[in-house]
Amino acid sequence: MKKIYWPLLLSIALALGVLLGGFLVSSSFRTPGLTANVNKIKLNKLIDFIEQEYVDEVNTDSIVDQTVTSILEQLDPHSVYIAKESMQSVSESMNGEFVGIGISFYVYKDSLAVIKDIANGPAQKAGIQPGDRILYADTLKIYGEKIPSEEIVSKLKGEEGSDIRLKVYRKKENKFFTTRVTRSMIPLKSVDVGLKLENGLGYIKINRFAGSTYTEFMSALNRLREDRIDGLVLDLRDNGGGYMDQAIKILDEFLDKDLIIVKTINKRGREVLTKASSKGSFQKGPLYVLVNEGSASASEIIAGAIQDNDRGVIIGRRSFGKGLVQRELLLGDGSAIRLTTARYYTPSGRSIQKPYNHGFEEYNNDFITRYERGELYAADSIKIADSLQYKTLEGRVVYGGGGIVPDIFVPIGVKHGDDAVVLLMQSGIVSYFVFEQIDSNRGMFESMDVESLAKHIKSNAMVFKSFKEHLRHSGLNFNLDKRKDMIEFYLIAEFVNQLKDEKDYYHWLFREDAMLKAIPLKVTK
């Protein structure tokens, strides 16, 4: 088997997440009229010549897209082009909603299989259940046709309030039925979960900063306050960023009046200083922020402001290191660019943007450098510049120049060589396997609580054996016998994910969460 460099794969995933979920100004704005000059005329003439004179037929739209992409690549790693074909999905992700029927699914073997449906969503209201196969969507035959997932998603989406007629097969009851589903607005949650931990702290997990994030966050925080939490854990791990105003609003809930939240400086040297108001609802009480190498941009603004103002404790590993602000500019044909228009600085004056003057490849492969240097495993391997020292409000020394260094370091939690196994266990291969297992006896699995599920998987040797066989059929050969406990933990997590709700899933993951375990028992703030 060809060797797979797992750290490289993860670094690519981190880079993509940060590029697409970067630090944005939430209001789009249209570009002003272009001033004619020689270079612009030259580009226009080149496109005209190609269209009119070139010997072969050429898709000039594609050429223009490549040209725009190439120009932006000369600027910085976070100025990017969004083609019009991608704008809808990007906008839906950042707006936090889309119109659809409210299911997650696999194209499983030769049919569309429902994994989960959204609680009280259109599909659930119409009687669709996990494990159901959707055979027809109106007159479109789905099973046996090898229809691309993108085409299926396009068919299931539509106008709000419109109907779609589905023909369904329910395997566990061996029956066919037809139902009509009325499409409605489906939320794309940016706050995964808000729950109370066993130690009395509240916990909120934010996966990105979309247009609805502050509202989602406040809803979760208010519920937790009603539950009389003793403090709050804000989990920003692997959060690649998003809208700047959403991060600022959340920080305003934590900081006392007139404390600095963030400073931005644009090309012309114009400085904008944002300070906290007096309306914060959680200005007192213990606060912990979890970050890792995938926490970027708006996540780093929150971590930096909390750290510099000595409001809470940052726990985890050094964050990504993105201190550039993008503005989304529409190009008039349905496409857009995200152009870097300013740099941001934390309250102490730190720029946490890591260097990119040695090329974008080195920049995007920074995770590999950290991995090879041992930074993910030991705090003393973190590379910091002594010349970039700053001080917090209480006089603690902090550093700029490439991410937020946590107050409490937590290593990645696995031994060298186990990284690939962890990545594997968080991949789609595992979720596909678990779906097959559940599908073989859905009634039995659905009747189990979390502890029963865990006991069944640990005591049933066939589950572990079947998983190894599943990997071999997928072309992956791992020696998993020495890591059986780790494998079973993640398998159970995926069973819980597919069968139970988010709170059950996260409570299971918390059992082996090293960062949560690193929270000090005594709190002072």
TrEMBL record:
Annotated PDZ domain residues: 97-172
GO BP annotations listed: proteolysis; signal transduction
Source species, domain of life: Bacteria
Listed GO MF terms: endopeptidase activity; serine-type peptidase activity
Family recorded in the similarity comment: Belongs to the peptidase S41A family.
Keywords per UniProt: Hydrolase, Protease, Serine protease
Listed name of the protein: Carboxyl-terminal processing protease
Pfam families: PDZ_2, Peptidase_S41
Positions of the Tail specific protease domain: 174-355
Matching Gene3D superfamilies: 2-enoyl-CoA Hydratase, Chain A, domain 1, 2.30.42.10, 3.30.750.44
A GO CC annotation given for this chain: outer membrane-bounded periplasmic space
Keyword presence, tRNA-binding: no
SUPFAM superfamilies registered for this protein in UniProt: ClpP/crotonase, PDZ domain-like
